[in-house]
Amino acid sequence: MAALNSPRTSRPAPSLTGGASIIASVCIGAGMLGLPSSGAGAWTLWSALALILTMVVMTLSGWMLLEAFKHYDLRASFNTVTKSMLGARINVFSNLTVYFVGGILLYAYITSSGLIIQSMTGVDSKLASVVFVLLFSLVVWHSTRAVDRLSVVLVTFMFLSFVLGVSGLASRIDLGILFNTIDPGGRYAPYALAMLPVALTSFGYHHSVASLRAYYGEERKAQKAILGGTLVALLFYLAWLVSIFGNLPRADFGPVVAQGGDVDVLLAALGFAIDSERVATIISAFSSAAILSSFVGVGLGTFDFMADLLGFTNDRKGRTKTWVITFLPPLLLSLLSPFGFVLAIGYAGAAAAVWACIIPALLARKSRMLEGGKTGFMAPGGKAAIALVLVFGVLTILFHFMGLAGLLPEAELGAV
């Protein structure tokens, strides 16, 4: 986590554009690859509404973390504030969910990378996953600077390939497919419930809030940067969904969802639907870069979190121990029990709801009970906003497990 020596320094004030870009780049990644499959039942309008609602709630929850952090030094971390305000037991549970989210996301990226490499080269997917982890986790092990340099290249490539891919898809959008006019009486709304865990994961930037506050030296600029970043991410997601849903008919998502929403299956289905090898190649390249970018980004965040939590040193021996606990469990799980990309992202969303919704709401509530809690920066919306964020988090977890139990229409997607 970045920190400043004091709230006021002589350096030029950081730009809001830079902060918003940090938040947007943290949000936008491989998570968006799960959105088309998870939103296939809800289709265009209801998927868009689910994303807009999630963006509003996740923006509010980030602001609530800022509100809680105002009582502490700029060096204070999520771990420090949660332990101080909510107690050691809740903090332990919160930390477990942070590690689980990092691990399950790495697991999803490792599994999907193996499948994509297999489809491109014919190499066994498990061997491909091992090589992928050994090669790119070493970048994380080496240094944050190495991750920074790789991320700049990947983000630039992702942006260019996204623009080219979406423009290629947009030129082929069929409004009849986009709004599924072949089935005007179809049921859509119930499917949006199963989409929420994946949507929540796609706006998961909360581990960066403390760093952003330290970056600006105060809360209000960080608040604006968070809003700017989540708005940019929302626009990217809406453009992506409209482009996909305008080309690949709703009924064609059945086989994709039946195979767990794996990225390679979605790309294959999309390739057949758009009948353009160039666009299909660009989208495939974007997807590969998104998975790699997310892998090193989430890997670095989890790596640093575990090193700080367990007190591992920053020398070769300490970083190697941190590497083992960060990357080995998800790799072994991927090799022993691979399953669908969307299902894995859904698990991450359910766990992330704890520390990205429930914990921030509880922290904001506690903050307002402290001396000086109702002065300085406060998240807007009062008690109603706290209730909204808290209920959204609880319902997201509930909907995830209802989906697993077959109590939501998600299980019927093969027949849409």
Automatic annotation (TrEMBL):
<feature type="transmembrane region" description="Helical">
    <location>
        <begin position="12"/>
        <end position="33"/>
    </location>
</feature>
<feature type="transmembrane region" description="Helical">
    <location>
        <begin position="345"/>
        <end position="364"/>
    </location>
</feature>
<keyword id="KW-1003">Cell membrane</keyword>
<feature type="transmembrane region" description="Helical">
    <location>
        <begin position="322"/>
        <end position="339"/>
    </location>
</feature>
<keyword id="KW-0813">Transport</keyword>
<keyword id="KW-0812">Transmembrane</keyword>
<keyword id="KW-0997">Cell inner membrane</keyword>
<keyword id="KW-1133">Transmembrane helix</keyword>
<feature type="transmembrane region" description="Helical">
    <location>
        <begin position="152"/>
        <end position="173"/>
    </location>
</feature>
<dbReference type="GO" id="GO:0005886">
    <property type="term" value="C:plasma membrane"/>
</dbReference>
<comment type="function">
    <text>Involved in transporting aromatic amino acids across the cytoplasmic membrane.</text>
</comment>
<dbReference type="GO" id="GO:0015173">
    <property type="term" value="F:aromatic amino acid transmembrane transporter activity"/>
</dbReference>
<keyword id="KW-0029">Amino-acid transport</keyword>
<feature type="transmembrane region" description="Helical">
    <location>
        <begin position="279"/>
        <end position="301"/>
    </location>
</feature>
<feature type="transmembrane region" description="Helical">
    <location>
        <begin position="45"/>
        <end position="69"/>
    </location>
</feature>
<feature type="transmembrane region" description="Helical">
    <location>
        <begin position="116"/>
        <end position="140"/>
    </location>
</feature>
<protein>
    <recommendedName>
        <fullName>Aromatic amino acid permease</fullName>
    </recommendedName>
</protein>
<dbReference type="InterPro" id="IPR018227">
    <property type="entry name" value="Amino_acid_transport_2"/>
</dbReference>
<dbReference type="GO" id="GO:0003333">
    <property type="term" value="P:amino acid transmembrane transport"/>
</dbReference>
<feature type="transmembrane region" description="Helical">
    <location>
        <begin position="385"/>
        <end position="408"/>
    </location>
</feature>
<feature type="transmembrane region" description="Helical">
    <location>
        <begin position="188"/>
        <end position="205"/>
    </location>
</feature>
<dbReference type="InterPro" id="IPR013059">
    <property type="entry name" value="Trp_tyr_transpt"/>
</dbReference>
<feature type="transmembrane region" description="Helical">
    <location>
        <begin position="225"/>
        <end position="245"/>
    </location>
</feature>
<dbReference type="Pfam" id="PF03222">
    <property type="entry name" value="Trp_Tyr_perm"/>
</dbReference>
<keyword id="KW-0472">Membrane</keyword>
<feature type="transmembrane region" description="Helical">
    <location>
        <begin position="90"/>
        <end position="110"/>
    </location>
</feature>
<comment type="similarity">
    <text>Belongs to the amino acid/polyamine transporter 2 family. Mtr/TnaB/TyrP permease subfamily.</text>
</comment>
